Amino acid sequence: MGTIEYQVVEHTKTLAGTRKVYLTTKARELLDTLQKASINTGFVDNDYIFVNEKGRIHVRALDYRLRKYCSNLNIPEKSMHKIRKTFISTLIDNNVNINYIRETVGHESEETTYKSYCFNRLSTEKTENILENVLCG
Prior knowledge:
Elements: H1 25-41, E1 51-52, E2 55-56, H2 59-72, H3 80-93, H4 98-105, H5 110-117, H6 124-136
Antiparallel strand pairs: 1-2
């Protein structure tokens, strides 16, 4: 079994990878708090949000901590990837334009967004009620 190696590169996987992402007021406040905490601890890096004395914190470490804190708070554990899928599905459920969603998450095609990241978050009963209303008026 091979080892996994990580490398920081100066480019994204695709042209769609370079993008702007809307942040809510609460998210901007949280980023401000994180930045101040980094300054207070002396771990400042203008390229990364989550850093420590060794540099940037890797996604796996963030994912581990996220799951751990969810468990500690007795809430369902979510991975970063699951949060991304929920984010995309929530935008689709709320009729946000698919091209805006695709661009925001860095997908080159709508197909990728729908096929790999969109899932039905409603219960079977709610889905069937919607189908009944749509099909029978």
